[in-house]
């Protein structure tokens, strides 16, 4: 059991948890992930480590409520515990002194891009960061990103904060004006965002690294569920990644595979919400009886 020491609500659908996990905290590096199980009957969910503190023995996870399991996980409170944590898993980010680099974080992808930007900055790189979300309420960690960046560009799709633009717009401008200086780009966020970031950098021949979070089951390479088609053959995200050359990913295949279980996911959410509503009604009724 892994105790939740702190919980923060970052938006209506995003929560942050600081979890007691000394072994993982001592060994974690930027870019790696953990497999989380909320309770003994839960499914295995891959989450990139957003931060870690070896001295305190903690890791930070940022969770977006998408399906039943992430909703259940986000409902846990400070003092509760996660049933299981396995990690750190995957290859860490290759941190070197490249020169000028761009780190792009979209939505909940801002969390895992933060330790990468931080470590790149510490390695002596000039870090330009671009973060974006659909609207201001979904933006978080602006100041944390600013603290590890030489330049920070903030975008929202609807213009409710920062610049009204997709993250690819300022990225293209940077590549057009400073393309000869930018050594590498990292992008983490929705799959469709990473696809278009890779498409934006391709004409400029700037190496682009993306962190993939495909369908994952066991996290050990045994099941093959996280298979991703590349131009030079298939790879498994859990053991070969999670970071890959964005110019080699078959994005259409990946987007198609991620739709496979949408019906089952909707059914699971509906059942979970019905169960939660029924449980809340029972508790209310019991409280009313006891209060008489």
Q: If you had to describe this structure to a student in words, what would you say it looks like?
A:
This protein has 292 residues and is an alpha/beta fold. The protein folds into two domains: 2-89, Elongation Factor Tu (Ef-tu), domain 3 (Beta Barrel); 100-257, Nucleotide-binding domain of ferredoxin-NADP reductase (FNR) module (Rossmann fold, 3-Layer(aba) Sandwich), CATH 3.40.50. The protein is 32% helix and 30% strand. Strands 12-11-10-9-13-14-17 form a seven-stranded mixed beta sheet, sandwiched between helices. Helix 4 links the parallel strand 10 (126-133) and strand 11. It starts with a strand and ends with a helix.
Short account of what is shown:
This protein is an alpha/beta fold. 32% of the residues lie in helices and 30% in strands. It has 2 domains: 2-89, Elongation Factor Tu (Ef-tu), domain 3 (Beta Barrel); 100-257, Nucleotide-binding domain of ferredoxin-NADP reductase (FNR) module (Rossmann fold, 3-Layer(aba) Sandwich).
Give descriptors for this structure.
292 residues, alpha/beta, Elongation Factor Tu (Ef-tu), domain 3, Rossmann fold, 2 domains, 7-stranded mixed β-sheet
């Amino acid at each position: 059991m892994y105790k939740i020491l702190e919980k923060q609500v970052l938006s209506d659908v995003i929560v942050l948890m600081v979890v007691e996990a000394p072994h993982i905290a001592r060994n974690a590096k930027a870019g790696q992930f953990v497999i989380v199980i909320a309770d003994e009957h839960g499914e295995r969910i891959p989450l990139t480590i957003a931060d870690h503190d070896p001295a305190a023995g903690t890791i930070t996870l940022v969770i977006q409520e998408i399906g039943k399991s992430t909703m259940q996980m986000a409902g846990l409170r400070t003092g509760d515990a996660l049933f299981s944590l396995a990690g750190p898993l995957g290859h860490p980010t290759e941190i070197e002194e490249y020169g000028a680099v761009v780190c792009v974080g979209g939505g909940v992808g801002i969390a895992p891009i933060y330790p990468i930007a931080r470590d790149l900055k510490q390695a002596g790189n000039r870090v330009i960061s671009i973060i974006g979300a659909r609207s201001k309420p979904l933006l978080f960690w602006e100041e944390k990103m600013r603290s590890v960046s030489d330049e920070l560009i903030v975008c929202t799709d609807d213009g409710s904060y920062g610049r009204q633009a997709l993250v690819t717009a300022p990225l293209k401008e940077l590549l057009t004006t400073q393309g000869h200086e930018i050594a590498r780009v990292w992008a983490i966020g929705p799959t469709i965002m990473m696809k278009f970031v890779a498409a934006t950098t391709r004409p400029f021949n700037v190496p682009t690294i993306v962190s993939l979070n495909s369908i994952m089951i066991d996290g050990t390479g045994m099941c093959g569920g996280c298979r991703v088609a590349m131009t030079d053959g298939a790879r498994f995200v859990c053991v070969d990644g999670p970071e890959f050359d964005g110019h080699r990913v078959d994005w259409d295949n990946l987007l198609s595979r991620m739709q496979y279980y949408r019906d089952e996911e909707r059914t699971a959410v509906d059942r979970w919400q019905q169960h939660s509503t029924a449980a809340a009604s029972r508790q209310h009724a019991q409280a009313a009886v006891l209060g008489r």
